[in-house]
Design a protein that fits this description.
Blueprint lengths: L13 E9 L7 H20 L4 H13 L20 E10 L9 E11 L5 H11 L4 E3 H10 L13 H17 L14 E6 L5 E7 L20 E3 L3 E7 L1 H6 L2 H8 L5 H16 L3 E7 L4 E5 L3 E8 L3 E5 L11
Parallel strand pairs: 3-4
Antiparallel strand pairs: 1-5, 1-11, 2-3, 2-6, 5-6, 7-8, 8-9, 9-10, 11-12
Helix pairs in contact: 1-2, 2-3, 7-8
The protein binds glycine (GLY).
Glycine (GLY) binds next to strand 8 and helix 6.
């Protein structure tokens, strides 16, 4: 039975963010990545501490990470097979319909954008789709036209390309020309998709995710970070954001699976179970962060590395590199 009939427990604000699951990345970048993740979570935590919404907190956290060139989202996104940036992002929130309502009394809303190239902060455009359009997901040129009509400034696609991303793309292209064998978007998962999940003092839950996608992806490929239920999900039980191999995350509806499991298991067991199921089903690597309705934080991954930063009133703000729960069994 769902635990909705229970009296509302004391509401505890909490926020957890990830900086992508995958290869560990160069040691020379670790200090700066950690600093950036702590700064991003500090921005979100300030919103929650002052009574702001979970939605504002996750969007502020993800925006800060999109603006940082070391993460594969926004400015810093990896390039697709044609050397272009195509970004995906999504947000979802679950808000009590009335101050005392719990469970089914929540109102769910979501917004997402896919394959956009001319928007500095795709997560903010995803939020605008949710708040100012009758739709949930807009893609490509249509999403960018909507951005312009909503007053969001468009940039040139090359303004989103960092020197670091261009060099990585060139190295990858040279390697592929040399081997002519690697399948697109099935090679080692790149590091740096960003996401966050939060619970606020008013009983609302929200999650947001943003990415440049996976290395070697084909022109037009859309991944889990644009898809509600896969890369992002929130309901009255919890909120979650995913990272890792997008096709596997879509196949296993990773975030929805983990959040739905909160009806039966504690948060940490729910995320471990969801990652284990994804690995069994696909053999791929992924990670997830989650906040439940009581402000309990959980995370799990089966990649070489996943960075997490978190805030709650008891523990303050912390950065962690949790160990993988298990390694993918298939390539
Ligand atoms: N998880 C990011 C992507 O596959 O696009």
């Amino acid at each position: 039975m769902l635990p909705f009939a229970m009296a509302r427990a004391r509401l505890i604000p909490a926020l957890v963010a990830h900086g992508g699951a995958g290869a560990a990345g160069p040691a020379s970048e670790r200090f700066e990545r950690r600093r950036a993740m702590l700064a991003a979570v500090r921005a979100g935590a300030a919103i929650l501490r002052s009574g702001g919404s979970a939605l504002d907190a996750v969007v502020a956290t993800v925006t800060a990470l999109e603006d940082h060139p070391l993460f594969n989202a926004g400015y810093g996104s990896i390039l697709n097979s044609e050397g272009r940036v195509e970004m995906d992002a999504s947000v979802m929130e679950s808000v009590p319909a009335a101050p005392e309502s719990v469970g089914p009394g929540h109102i769910l809303r979501a917004g997402a954008v896919a394959a956009v190239s001319r928007v500095r902060n795709p997560v903010q455009l995803a939020r605008t789709v949710m708040e100012r359009s009758p739709h949930i997901l807009l893609a490509g040129a249509g999403a960018e036209r909507f951005a312009r009509t909503a007053g969001i400034r468009l940039c040139r696609p090359d303004e989103m390309i960092t020197e670091r991303a261009r060099k990585k793309w060139q190295m990858r292209r040279d390697r592929m020309l040399a081997t002519a064998a690697e399948a697109p978007a099935r090679a080692a998962v790149g590091h740096g998709t960003v996401g966050a999940a939060a619970a606020d003092l008013h009983g609302a839950l929200a999650a947001a995710t943003s990415t440049g996608g996976v290395p070697g992806k084909l022109f037009g490929r859309i991944g889990d970070s644009a898809l509600i239920g896969a890369g992002t999900f929130a309901n009255a039980l919890g909120a979650a954001s995913a990272t890792g191999h997008g096709e596997a995350i879509i196949l296993s509806s990773l975030c929805r699976e983990a959040v739905t499991e909160l009806a039966h298991r504690p948060a940490q067991r729910a995320v471990r179970g969801a990652i284990t199921e994804l690995a069994d089903l696909t053999g791929a690597e992924a990670g997830i962060v989650l906040v439940d309705r009581r402000g309990r934080i959980a995370y799990a991954h089966n990649a070489a590395s996943m960075e997490v930063a978190q805030f709650n009133p008891a523990g303050g703000i912390r950065h962690l590199r949790p160990a993988p729960i298990l390694r993918a069994s298939r390539p």
